[in-house]
Structures are given as structure tokens and as C-alpha cells.
Amino acid sequence: MAAPHRIDVHHHITPPSYSAAAAAIIEGNPPRMNWSLAKSLEDMEQGGVATAIISLPHPVTIWPKPQDKQRALARDWNEYVATMGRDHPGKFGLFATLPMLDIDGALKELEYSLDVLKADGINMMTNIGDKWLGDPYFHPIFEELHRRKAVVYTHPIAPSCLHDCLPGVNDSIVEFGSDTTRTIASLIFSGAAAKYKDIDFIFSHAGGTMPFLVERFERAPGRWAPAVEGGAVQHLKRFYYDTAQAAHKWALLSLTELVESTQIMFGTDFPYRTSSETAQGLIDFGFSEADLRAIDCGNAKRLLPNWR
Questions:
Q1: Nearest CA-CA partner of 201 in 145, 245, 278
Q2: 26: how many CB neighbours lie within 10 A of its CB?
Q3: How far apart are CA 21 and CA 15, in angstroms?
Q4: Main-chain dihedrals φ then ψ at residue 242, nearest 5 degrees
Q5: CB under 8 Å to 41, separation ≥6 — which residues?
Q6: Cα distance between residue 77 and residue 303, in whole Å
Q7: What's the N-to-C CA distance of the chain in angstroms?
């Protein structure tokens, strides 16, 4: 692969306190990733990745109930990644985790993460407590992010009402892509996408099922959903989308019919997928050299000031 230059905006780790919290709360089958720092660095080297922007896989599933413990865990996770970045200059960035259902705590951690830790943005799940991102409950957080013109990286998770709804079929197969689409719809049809237009949203996995459903986004307002001034597609075209588990023709043919290459960002979903196979998938798709460079790193450098 090429010399390291790519910026991976979809790279997961599991700090020790994350694994401990998961084991304490999720009985029977807590999430296991078998992650290590050495494995991250090895994968990055093999796939020509210069920098990985770190996010946790599913923090919303393992919050303990007391708010003070939630705040402490978020701080510990964010500090852990910040320390990785200091120990390996240029290698790791941070999409910070917030205790999202604790608005005061989330605002404090947002301020600390962006101002002190110099995080690249905020990591949000597509639904938190079965509230999707357009829910008014989150408006105080979005108001501050809008004021700061910040980046919000999103990652899907199945809502509790649909968790394990197909016996023997992991939620990631169907529900992750669907929930990305739900939260995009929530942002657009609630008016949040227009109200907080200075927030740059990154959606995982090429936007989930959204590119296939664009016509419904356009036809729904006024009949099945609130009207959207200027149409829903204007928002879909300005959002950003990563290539995690989507570096193949079935996803990219649809996504590239909707958005320009300026809106697509290199993402791997490590450790579930590797950077080398993601990079090769983008090459095999047939992007031009200029488009590949934009997707690999140019768009991230434009969006994330720490890496310009």
C-alpha cells in the first residue's frame, strides 16, 4: 500500500475501563474486540494510515446509572485517547464521548474535550436512550456545537425496541444501517439539521440505507413528514459519509450518485475491518486519483483543523 497518508475517521478502541464497565453491565455477552494499541498501529501501517481518529464502539450501552459515574467514565475514556495521541504524535485524534443523557455533564465534557484535550469532534450514537439526534432533548448540546462550528461523528446502534429482534442475526447486519437512516431523518424532519447548520455531521457506513431511500426523503414532506424548506436532499448533500464497511460498488454506486467526493471520508471500522482492505476497495471501485486523495485524507484535513 502507499506510504502513510490516510486519515481513518472510523477507528475503534476499548480502554480498560470501557471493558470493565461493559462486563459489569451487560450480562452474558459483553462486547469483546480483542483490541490493543499494537494492533491499531500495525493495521495503520499496513493500510497506509497516518492518523486514526478514535471513537468508542458502543458507549451508550454500558453507562452505569449514577450520573457521577457516567461523567467519570466519559472523562477517563477521553483522557485515555488523548494520552495515546500525546504518546504517539500525529497518530491518533479523538472524537470525544459525552454522557449524552446528562445534559449538564455532557456540556461540561464537551467544553473540556474541545478546549483542553483539543478533540477533533464529538462522538454520538445514532440513538441514545431511544432518542434520535433530532430529539429536542439534545438541543442544548447541539446549540453549543453549532456555536463552535464543531464536528459530530455518528455511529449506529440498534434501538432497544429492536435489539435482537431477529433470532440469530446480529443487530449490525440490518439495524445499524437502518438506525443511521433513522437519525438522519430525525435531524432533517425535526428541523434540527437546518437550525444547527454549522455542525458538520459525519455518518458511518456510507449513510446506512439512506442513499437507497433518497426518493422517500424527498417525497415524504407534507404527506408523511414535516415539510423541509428547500428539500431534504440539500442536507443529505452537505453531510459527510465514511467508507467503513462500504468500500464496495454496492454502497458506493448509490452514495456517489447522491454526493460529491468532497463529502466522502476514509473510514475502516477497525478492528472489525482493516485499513488495507478498505483502501483496496476504494481503488478497485475506480475513483480518480484526485478523488482518492480527497477521500483518503484531503476531506479530513479540510474538516478537521488539527490535521491540516
A1: 145
A2: 13
A3: 10
A4: -95, 170
A5: 88, 91
A6: 23
A7: 22
Q: Which three cell numbers stand for residue 158?
A: 440498534
162's grid cell: 429492536
Q: C-alpha grid cell for residue 5?
A: 497518508
Q: Which residues contact 183 (CB under 8 A, 6 or more apart)?
A: 126, 127, 132, 133, 134, 154, 156
Whether the Cβ atoms of residue 67 and residue 20 lie closer than 8 Å to each other: no
* One-letter amino acid for residue 186 of the chain: S
pLDDT in tens, the chain (308 residues): 468 999 999 999 998 888 887 777 665 555 556 789 999 999 999 999 999 999 987 765 567 677 888 899 999 999 999 999 999 999 999 999 999 999 999 999 999 999 999 999 999 999 998 899 999 999 999 999 999 999 999 999 988 888 888 999 988 899 999 999 999 999 999 999 999 999 999 999 999 999 999 999 999 887 888 889 899 999 999 999 999 999 999 999 999 999 999 999 999 999 999 999 999 999 999 999 999 999 999 999 999 999 98
Dihedral sign computed on CA atoms, order 286, 297, 16, 70: negative
Task: Show Cβ contacts of residue 100 under 8 Å, excluding neighbours closer than 6 positions.
Answer: 60, 106, 124, 125, 128, 129, 138, 141
- How far is it, in rounded angstroms, from Cα 264 to Cα 176? 19
pTM above 0.90? yes
Domains of the chain: residue spans and CATH:
6-307 (3.20.20.140)
* Cα Rg of the chain (Å, integer): 18
Query: Angle of helix 249-258 relative to helix 275-285, nearest 10 degrees?
Result: 60
Q: Which amino acid would we find at residue 86?
A: R
H helices of the chain, where? 16-25, 37-46, 67-87, 103-115, 139-148, 171-189, 192-195, 214-219, 233-238, 249-258, 275-285, 289-293, 299-303
